[in-house]
Structures are given as structure tokens and as C-alpha cells.
Design brief:
Blueprint: E1 12-14, E2 21-22, E3 35-38, E4 44-45, E5 58-61, E6 68-69, E7 88-91, H1 96-101, E8 110-113, E9 115-121, H2 127-132, E10 140-148, H3 151-156, E11 165-172, E12 193-195, E13 202-203, E14 216-218, E15 225-226, E16 239-241, E17 248-249, E18 262-264, E19 271-272, E20 285-287, E21 294-295, E22 308-311, E23 317-318, E24 331-334, H4 349-354, E25 356-359, H5 362-368, E26 379-382, H6 386-396, E27 399-404, E28 407-422, E29 428-442, E30 446-452, E31 455-461
Parallel strand pairs: 1-3, 2-4, 3-5, 4-6, 5-7, 7-8, 9-10, 10-11, 11-12, 12-14, 13-15, 15-17, 16-18, 19-21, 20-22, 21-23, 22-24, 24-25, 25-26
Antiparallel strand pairs: 27-28, 28-29, 28-30, 30-31
Length: 462
């Protein structure tokens, strides 16, 4: 709403990603406001949004395209401040010329570009010395490290207050003194994207707990364990590609990831941990691979937007309150012939009244309707095709698909794949026959349905 934060005593504000518009006077007359960060998703700023913020010193924009204002001469109240010598505009790397030519934005007297730090570190050349030598550490947005890192190097990165991307993919470290053990990436207050070292096989407990701006995580292919609470309360995390390894997930591993829209489990996973996805309120569908045997206590409790659950043929036990308060749940499709051991409180009374359980045969339906908990469901549907549909999906899913900044990332293993991209309403936007390989297909920010041969994926592009 307009004026929502007007006349408050805030000193710094970071507008969250996914916000597209700042309304009239939203931060007007914030007399202590010094720093504003605008997200890549921002498309429009209304009049006087930052009007009369007289101590404002820094405006950081992350959109490479200058944002439209209702009135260019007002620029959301920034224009009347832009001639002040103390006010600095920081823009993405390589976009200074675009902003210098844009209506409204060209009025800024002081414009700087974000920078990238690429450094090789070692015992002889620690990162502390490299950062100390920087003249403008506040401008570094992306950091890519190589060489051998220590815990002191990770601590040194806290001196880059606006670091948003950190790539540790190529670093090495002493396995007996793993610098990531006990380190919490929430200490990097602006971090949006993190690439873990390829050497890493275990994501330590609480590694990113409460890293509330973290949107994207790149895990190494060799990861076998993600320990408890590793990503809990990463509230901006929208999706994560779990590696196709023999993967173990710790308790509460994604607890409270409120923006997590999709999760694709590796075929090897056998256990969904207790509280693993508790409060992941943006999840809409959960498919369990055929080896999953146990679904933990409160594993998906409070996932209020889940509509469909597909239970694989090996699910043996669903524990207490596993799907409690999944208020949008409509369908449970189960491939298991014998009913899983399930306490009544795994589901709610409303589930028993409204949810439809889909099974492959009349015999399986009768088996479910004769045991505790499953006999409580009032609605059953027999669909003999569900087994073949799932088998096709498993056999043809030879692709890695996820959204990155302004693009769709694809890794295709088949000799040739038909890739089609649809809007959420079903409108086909593009279709390509692509050979095996890696691709980045440019796309605007948003949600897409992507089909590759006979498999489909729901993908969010930033």
C-alpha cells in the first residue's frame, strides 16, 4: 500500500526479489534512510516513493535495465536528491552507459558499477590481504575464488558488504580442517547465490540457516549428505537441484523455506527426514521416487499449497503429522499395493472428507479400505494407467532443468530432445529440437512449464 513505511526510522532497506512495483510514497520522509537496494524484478516505481529522504547516500539497483518511473522527472522522489554530492547510484557491471542515457537516472551525479573479484588464495596469499588492498570493497557484488581456502578466508569475505554471489566451486581445502564446518553463510548479509566447492561431500549442519536473501544454491555432484537445518529458513530459496547420488537428508533440512516452489528428489533417496519441509508453503506437488520407504514426522506439515502427492511403490511408513495442515491437498496417488503404515494424525479430518486417493486397481482399493487410517478417506478412484505414466516419466527423465537469472538452464543427455516451453496457462511459447548438451535459453522472469520429450517440469526463472 502507498506510504506503508513512510516516516519510519529505518536506516537501510533491501526490497525483496519478486517485488515488481514500489507504490506512491512508500518510503517518503524516512529521515534516517541511508541505503536502498532495488531488486532485479523491479519494473516500476511510483511518484515520491523515496521523496524527502534527505540523508539518503546510496541507491543500489540490480536490474541491468533501468526501471521505469511514473514520472521520469520525479524518479520516485530520487530525482530531487540526485544532484547531491553525497548520493551515489550503484548499477550492475557493464550498465553504467545505459543508466547514464535513461530518463531520470541520468540526473545522478555519481554513478559506479558493481565489480567482480576473482582471486586465487593460498597460505602465502590469504584473502584478507587481497581485500584490504581494494579501494572500493563496497562495490564488489560477485566473488569467484580458486586455490586453497581456510576459515580465515571465509571470515575475510564479510568485509565485502554487498557481495551477492559467491562461487567456491573450484577451491580446495584441508579435509581435516574443513573451513565450512561451523560456518554460517548468513554472515554474508546480501548473499543471493552460493556455489559450494566441488570437493565437498557433506553440506554441514546449519550451513545456510537463516540466510534469508539466498535464492539459488549450486550443490556439487558428489554430495552424499545434507545435514540437519542446512537450509532451514532460507526464505527466498525458490528451487534447488539435488544431485543424483546416494543422498541422505538431515532433520529440518529445508524447514521454513517459504519460497521453495519445487523439489526433485534423486532416485536413490530412501528417507524423507522429520520436519524436512515443514512450512514450505509454496510447494504445490510432491513426487516420491520409487526407493523412498519412510516419510518422516511433520515432514510436510503446514505446506499449505500442496495439491498433489504421489507415493512411490516402496513407501512403507508415513509418520505422525507428515501432511498436517496441507490445506490445499486434493489428490494422493499411490503406487504401493499394500497400504503404508500410517497413523491417523498423518492427515487431517478435512483430508479424509475431501481428498481423493488414486490407486491402480479395485483389489488395491479394497486393501486400502480395510486398514486403519486409509479406510477414513471417503473418496477413492481407480486408474490403471497411473503405473505406466510414472514409469514413462522415470525412464525418460534424462535431463537437468532449472531456472537461472534471465534464462532456462538445460542439461540434455538424449541424442535429441524435443524441448517445449509453456506459460502456466498452457500457451506454447517456444519449441526446439536440441541435441545432447548444455544450454541456457533466454527467458523473462516468471513461472514456466517445460516439457522434454515425455517429462514435464515446473521452472521459475529469476
Amino acid at each position: 500500500m502507498g506510504g506503508a513505511f513512510a516516516r519510519t526510522a529505518i536506516t537501510e532497506v533491501t526490497i525483496p526479489d519478486a517485488c515488481e512495483e514500489i507504490l506512491y510514497g512508500a518510503f517518503a520522509n524516512c529521515k534516517s534512510l541511508e541505503t536502498v537496494t532495488l531488486p532485479r524484478s523491479m519494473k516500476k516505481m511510483s511518484d515520491k516513493a523515496f521523496g524527502d529522504c534527505k540523508v539518503l547516500k546510496t541507491v543500489i539497483v540490480t536490474n541491468p535495465t533501468p526501471v521505469v518511473a511514473d514520472k521520469a522527472e520525479d524518479l520516485a522522489g530520487l530525482a530531487d536528491l540526485s544532484a547531491m554530492n553525497a548520493l551515489t547510484l550503484i548499477v550492475p557491471e557493464g550498465t553504467k552507459a545505459a543508466y547514464a542515457a535513461a530518463d531520470g537516472w541520468k540526473a545522478f551525479a555519481n554513478v559506479s558499477e558493481m565489480l567482480t573479484l576473482t582471486a586465487e588464495v593460498s597460505a602465502e596469499k590469504p584473502l584478507e590481504g587481497i581485500i584490504t588492498a581494494l579501494t572500493t570493497p563496497e562495490l564488489y557484488r560477485m566473488v569467484k575464488l580458486t586455490g586453497t581456502i581456510t576459515s580465515a578466508d571465509l571470515e575475510a569475505l564479510t568485509q565485502l558488504p554487498r557481495m551477492q554471489e559467491l562461487d567456491l566451486g573450484e577451491v580446495t581445502y584441508d579435509a581435516e580442517a574443513n573451513p565450512l564446518e561451523g560456518f554460517n553463510f548468513k554472515d554474508y548479509a546480501q548473499l543471493r547465490k552460493l556455489t559450494y566447492p566441488k570437493q565437498l561431500t557433506t553440506i554441514p549442519a546449519s550451513s545456510c540457516v537463516n540466510a534469508m536473501l539466498l535464492e539459488e544454491v549450486v550443490l556439487p555432484e558428489g554430495v552424499t549428505d545434507i545435514e540437519e537445518e542446512a537450509f532451514s529458513y532460507c526464505t527466498a530459496l525458490r528451487s534447488i537441484a539435488l544431485p543424483q547420488t546416494a543422498l541422505n537428508l538431515g532433520e529440518s533440512v529445508f524447514h521454513g523455506c517459504a519460497s521453495l516452489e519445487s523439489i526433485t528428489f534423486p532416485d536413490s533417496i530412501e528417507l524423507i527426514p522429520d520436519y524436512g519441509f515443514f512450512d514450505c508453503v509454496s510447494l504445490q506437488e510432491v513426487r516420491f521416487p520409487k526407493k523412498v520407504a519412510d516419510i518422516g514426522e511433520e515432514a510436510f506439515a503446514n505446506c499449505s499449497h500442496i495439491k498433489q502427492v504421489l507415493l512411490g511403490e516402496s513407501v512403507n511408513e508415513i509418520k505422525s503429522m507428515a501432511f498436517f495442515a496441507c490445506d490445499a491437498l486434493e489428490t494422493i496417488t499411490t503406487l504401493r499395493q499394500e497400504p503404508p503404515v500410517t497413523p491417523e494424525d498423518a492427515f487431517t479430518e478435512e483430508h479424509y472428507k475431501t481428498v481423493t486417493v488414486v490407486v491402480a486397481s479395485e483389489e488395491i482399493k479394497e486393501a486400502y479400505q480395510t486398514v486403519d487410517t486409509w479406510r477414513n478417506f471417503k473418496h477413492y478412484k481407480v486408474d490403471p494407467t497411473i503405473t505406466s505414466i510414472v514409469q514413462i516419466a522415470e525412464e525418460t527423465s534424462t535431463a537437468t532443468v532449472y531456472g537461472i537469472a534471465a534464462a532456462l538452464y538445460l542439461e540434455l543427455a538424449d541424442a535429441e530432445s524435443l524441448v517445449s516451453i509453456y506459460s502456466p496457462s498452457g500457451l506454447q511459447l517456444a519449441s526446439h529440437y536440441l541435441p545432447a548438451g548444455t544450454y541456457e535459453l533466454p527467458l523473462a522472469e516468471g513461472l514456466y512449464i517445460v516439457t522434454i520429450n515425455q517429462s514435464s517440469y515446473k521452472v521459475y526463472v529469476r
